[in-house]
Design brief:
By secondary structure, the protein is an alpha/beta fold. Helices cover 44% and strands 12% of the residues. A six-stranded mixed beta sheet has the order 7-6-5-1-4-8, with helices on both faces. The chain has a two-stranded antiparallel sheet with strand order 2-3. The chain is globular, with a radius of gyration of 18 Å.
């Protein structure tokens, strides 16, 4: 759009797009999609925004549940961010996940929507116990770039910048971005679509911080396993998801007010 004056922005995705880690379910979630909408509104106050994301959704569920409603809203801008929940499962097929993303890319761009997506940082840099998943992240990112190129989708290369793995950009569960992390992702998306006032400052490293000793690091890993990994595995074994019974927080296009 000329001068970044988008009028109808729709966000599709999982918990990151819903905004987990930035606010809470009592006060309300913000997240990178809300923050990007604020950037858009600074350029054009008439912009309307819908967020169809639901936590816990895998890429195939995002396509099945959110693509149709998104197309019905006739957006001129859409963000599609999904795949991390798939990567965390024991069985992961990068080609299948990328296929679901590409179907969304194809349908939305065919309808005249400017689609934006992101690449993911190496989760092993954020969660040491998840280092074996590094190859999955690299494979999916490569496929996302290829699918995006085939459909004229804009890619915000979050995963290529070291700052994306800084622990301060993540919450204690290490799965969801912190308020600062969501702000950086929103800034990356704003720059990717060349929104007026955006720049590459989101790529800059944070000030140095003390490096924990081995004992502190080990204790932190144990706390994370007990507080977050254990409950997550428990839900998987029971066939439950954090998104069970939940619906989109903002299913209709509305002004930001």
């Amino acid at each position: 759009m000329p001068n970044g004056e988008y009028l109808r922005y729709v966000a599709l995705g999982d918990s990151q797009t819903e905004g987990m880690g930035d606010g809470d379910d009592t006060a309300g979630l913000r997240g990178f999609a809300d923050r990007l909408a604020e950037h858009l509104a600074a350029v054009n106050p008439e912009v309307r925004y819908a967020n169809l994301a639901v936590r816990g959704r895998k890429a195939g569920q995002v396509r099945a549940e959110q693509l149709g409603p998104a197309l019905a809203l006739r957006p001129d801008l859409a963000t599609v961010v999904a795949g991390v929940n798939d990567m965390l499962r024991p069985r992961f097929d990068a080609a299948e996940v990328a296929g679901h993303l590409e179907e969304m890319f194809a349908a939305l761009t065919a309808a005249g929507t400017h689609v934006v997506t992101v690449t993911f940082p190496d989760v092993g840099e954020i969660v040491p116990l998840a280092r074996p998943l590094g190859s999955r992240v690299s494979d999916l990112n490569t496929r996302i770039r290829a699918a995006a190129a085939r459909h004229g989708v804009t890619v915000a290369e979050v995963g290529r910048h070291a700052v994306a793995a800084d622990p301060r950009l993540w919450t204690a569960d290490r799965l969801h971005a912190s308020p600062l992390g969501h702000a950086r992702i929103a800034a990356a998306l704003a720059q990717a679509i060349r929104l007026p006032g955006s720049d590459d400052s989101w790529t800059l490293p944070l000030p140095p911080r003390p490096v924990p000793g081995r004992r502190q690091a080990a204790e932190a890993e144990l706390r994370w396993v007990a507080g977050f990994l254990g409950p997550w595995i428990g839900r998987r074994l029971r066939g439950r998801s954090s998104g069970d019974g939940r619906t989109a927080k903002r299913p209709e296009l509305r002004p930001l007010g």
